[in-house]
Specification:
CATH class: Mainly Beta
Number of strands: 11
Radius of gyration: 16 Å
Strand content: 35-45%
Distance between the termini: 24 Å
Length: 175
């Protein structure tokens, strides 16, 4: 757990907490409370829109020999090599049903370290949703270590992903 996570006790407070470089205008606070919801396998997941750089159609992949099962490969995104993760790999995808989209997310580096970009395989991108204290739930399933809570939307739940935990659970080689 990083220092920011330890200093903020609830999911709602964590989403309201301002990064050091944000001045706290209404637009920025509203953006922090928006989530991009997508489906990977049978589950719905979401990321803060501030962590999502873009959503792209399925790219041409370069497979990496002897890579772990969750690392589908790497792809070129306008000159940058991005690793592509399948967070639903444990479910076993049916043959011939490849994901259709990639959610490209960026994890800010600590103490001047470079940002980590990663692509997350998505079968469907559902949309963006604004969260409030009633729609954010603190509890995440214990068997999903890369999530820190849940977002209630459209009478369904989406698991709120924590990119730092994703990087720990699905470690990708630095390229």
């Amino acid at each position: 757990m990083d220092d920011r996570t330890q200093s903020v006790s609830t999911l709602a407070e964590m989403d309201r907490a301002q990064p050091e470089d944000i001045h706290g205008s209404y637009e920025e606070r509203t953006a922090e409370r928006q989530y991009c919801v997508f489906r990977a396998g049978r589950e719905r997941f979401c990321l803060s829109v501030l962590e999502v750089e873009e959503v792209v159609d399925w790219p041409v992949l370069t497979r990496i020999p002897l890579a772990p099962a969750f690392l589908l490969g790497i792809f070129n995104l306008r000159g940058t090599i991005v690793p592509l993760l399948d967070i639903a790999f444990t479910e076993g995808r049916r043959p011939g049903l490849q994901p259709k989209h990639v959610v490209v997310a960026s994890l800010r580096g600590e103490s001047g370290a470079a940002d980590l970009r990663m692509g997350i395989a998505a079968d469907e991108v559902i949309g963006t949703y604004i969260a409030n204290d009633q729609t954010l739930l603190e509890d995440a399933p214990k068997d999903v270590p890369h999530c820190r809570g849940m977002l209630r939307h459209d009478d369904r739940l989406a698991l709120v992903m924590d990119l730092r935990r994703v990087a720990e659970v699905f470690p990708v080689p630095v390229i």
